[in-house]
Amino acid sequence: MGKRSGKVGSRRSQYSLFDQIELQHAPRVLLVEFFYWPFLAFGLNDPDLLAVVADKGVVKALSPRAKKEGIVVGDRARTAISVAPDLMVISSDLIDHGKLIFRVSSILEKFSPLLEVFDQGVWAINAKGPSRYFGGEASLAQQIREALAEEIVPDSFTGKCQKTALSNQDSLFSFGVSIADGIFTARVAAKRSLIIPAGESGAFLAPLPVTELPDGEVVELLTRLGIASLGEFADLDFNLVMQRFETTGALLHRMASGLDTSLLEPVKIKDDFNQKIEFEDPVETASAVAFSCRAAADYMLKRLLEDGYICQSLRVVLLSDNGEESIRDWSIQDGFSSNSLLERVRWQLESWSCDPETAPSAGVKIVQFLPQRVVLAGTNQLGLDGSERTSLAKVSQALSRVDSIVGKGSAFAKLKGSRTARGSVDMVSWQMHLFQVEEADNGQGGDKPPWPGRLLGLIPAICFESEVRVDITAEDGMAVVVRPDASLSGKPYWICILGTGSRFRVEKWSAVWPMMERWWDQSHSTRVARMQIVTEELGAVLVKSNGGKWSIEGAYD
Amino acid sequence: MNYSIERSHIAGSLSSPQLLSSQRYFEVTNCLRDVFPLGRVQRGSVLLFAGMQNSGVTSTVFEFLSAMEIRNDWCALVGFENLGFLAASEKGVDLKKLALIPDPGKAVAQVAAVLLEAFPVVVVKNPRFISRSQARNLIARIKVHKSIMVVIWHTLHVNGGAESSPWFSLSDYVIEHSISGFYGLGEGDGFIKERTVSLSLNYKRSNWMSRNIQLSI
Is A137 within the bounds of a domain? Predict the structure, then answer.
């Protein structure tokens, strides 16, 4: 313990004594991370595999060889195939995580009964207790590493030493085991398989680049500000960071200072969110248990949401008729939906009953859901992988309710580059949009290609969906038309809105800019010309001449 | 912990002291910053943007929404036909987080009520079908969910049109637009490069103190 006190390092920390004390009582996080988790979960075991995992056509994970081929996360799967024709593309919804989660969890459970399972191949254990029992942190990490390598690396690569070695190199089976103070530090250290002594997170993180931080936008800004290392970021005044980046920045700053203890600590919430389902007769099959828990799961999540919470981490307790017990913590960054919750229940039950050592001797009698960690819905809680947790669930819920009131679909607008003010937009139904938000974010944000002849200067804030026909006449009443050389036949003086009889005095008008629409299609191509007109009553409007007829395209409101 | 927690010392203030400033206010970051007192908008309030059809109301609202975009928040727009999305996107509004409810018909109040629960900012254009009691219900909901409702009201008169709106007395901020100017074009040459709008803000909490500002947007 003597080692821990006052060892916050050579670096002067601007955090108060209370933060340091809090740190002392914080759990030591042992983190296990599989770097190529989806491939292992898919049951692949060829270390030389050329494969990617894709979600809706966008590459999400790479095998080591795919990485060498130069494919990067965020590529379109189709482009990736053109780079490497013999690429294997695995659709992410075909991957069954449950089986491997069970195998890994049952190994880790031998070291500590309370583990937290994060999605996508990350486990965390509070190492404080187990490390004493297993002869120190280094020894604990080593034993876990060996046990995992034994299980994960298939027998075709024989020899225990080789297996551990294989898991250390950058191969499909590689994983990291680290022990550190906070989950962020542990995650960074896992990439290097290091053990960071207590209180030295700050010193460990200081020389590393800011790109280790999970928030892409803030990182980009910091880099542009000339802040390259985590240490430099941690040296910034906390209050200033808080002012500039708000709670997100505050969280990142604590992470960079090695003081992130937020995860793995239970948040105290009222116990009355807990759910207990008791069956009259013990239930034997996993799917039957999951089915009967649905109502309770729905009710609990709804109650939490009503109080403004989203459940990130949940403890599931299963009790058999003979009193055997299975406890496991499950975590999801985006918060649980009832489906994902029941999926976890099924996994836990299957793993429990499959393992001959622990299998219960009778059916399940009691199921309990105990929320462990909740976040305020709608706050910017950074995910483990850095994705910002948006309240997508809330948004889609609201929109589906609106649809049922209004009776027609709400939508999102999707810009396509084009030269007209109106024709450049696609309406996408909200369901489509919300499902594809990620994809759109990862693609190139090419909203504004340099279209020749696109609208100049200001763009009208109002664009009429249907044509508003007008006449533009000179002072003497002669119609003003656009000549082939894009000049006007007269000075515009009046603009009359057809059908209403109202006419307005033209004060100023812009140059005319001509444009061919659909020039590639002979039968549909039209020559149009545009002009901006300012009147006192109408303000500024954008008018379009098409075949000698004028219409208002948009208004500058 | 030295999170800067804003404690409210004003007696009778309803705001809870446990809230961070970001949970009580929206900072306005762009050119509209000068319009609002202390450059921020209190969450849980109603903003009325009023003006004639051509006085720049829509542009100011876009400008306002793009200030929200920095917080990465979702917005919902109710009753928007004829909207210039290209203009919105050029002004910096994040279309990916902008839900559009084209024409709610007479159910504006119900739709807005549902949206206010999930979206931090809801914009309603010319809500003529909201009764006074429905409006009071909406306001209660806004206060609970700490969201913001923006009402766009197109008036018929150049000056003093905002009072004609039933929302005038119910709003916390009233932003009135008067005449706007367009620059950069003459008689057949150039094109609109700049426009100015004249705004006047009335703020309920400061006894309807008003300030006038000219902006170039």
Answer: no
Between CA A120 and CA A386 the distance in angstroms is 13
Domain containing B177: what range? 21-216
Question: In chain B, which residue's Cα lies nearest the Cα of A17?
Answer: B1
Q: Is A15 on the interface with B (CB under 8 A)?
A: yes
Closest listed residue to residue B102, CA positions, set B69, B125, B86: B125
Nearest to A131 by CA among A179, A81, A168, A98: A179
DSSP state of B142: H
pLDDT in tens, A274-327: 888 888 888 888 888 888 888 888 888 878 777 767 787 888 898 888 888 888
pLDDT tens track for A7-64: 344 444 566 666 666 666 667 888 898 888 888 888 877 777 888 888 767 788 888 8
Q: CA–CA separation, B130 vs B111, rounded Å?
A: 11
Contact at 8 Å (CB) between B46 and B167? yes
Return the pLDDT at B97: 83
Q: What is the mean pLDDT of residues A442-447?
A: 39
Which residue, chain included where needed, has tokens 């806004």? B142
Cβ pair A378:B120 closer than 8 A? yes
Burial A525-551 (b: 16+ CB within 10 A, else e): eeebbbbbbbbeebbbbbbbbbeeebb
Instruction: Tell me the one-letter amino acid at B4.
Output: S
Tokens of residue A483, six digits? 């000549």
More confident residue, B128 or B16: B128
A547 is a domain residue: yes
Map tokens 């075909």 to a residue: A94
Q: What total number of domains does chain B contain?
A: 1
Residue A225 lies in a domain: no
Instruction: Quick: pLDDT tens for B154-199.
Output: 877 655 566 777 788 888 899 888 877 888 888 888 888 788 888 8
Domain containing A480: what range? 462-555
CA distance B74 to A246: 18
Residue recorded with tokens 């902008």: B98
Instruction: Tell whether A18 lies on the interface with B, counting CB pairs under 8 A.
Output: yes
The minimum CA-CA distance between B182 and chain A, rounded to whole Å, is 7
Task: Report DSSP letters for B145-210, one per residue.
Answer: HT-EEEEEEE-SSSSS-GGGSTTGGG-SEEEEEEEEEEEEE-BSSEEEEEEEEEEEEEEGGGTTEE
Look at residues A332, A350, A376 and tell me which one is the last residue of a structural domain. Answer: A376
Say whether A505 sits in a helix, a strand or coil: strand
User: What average pLDDT score do residues A374-403 get?
Assistant: 59
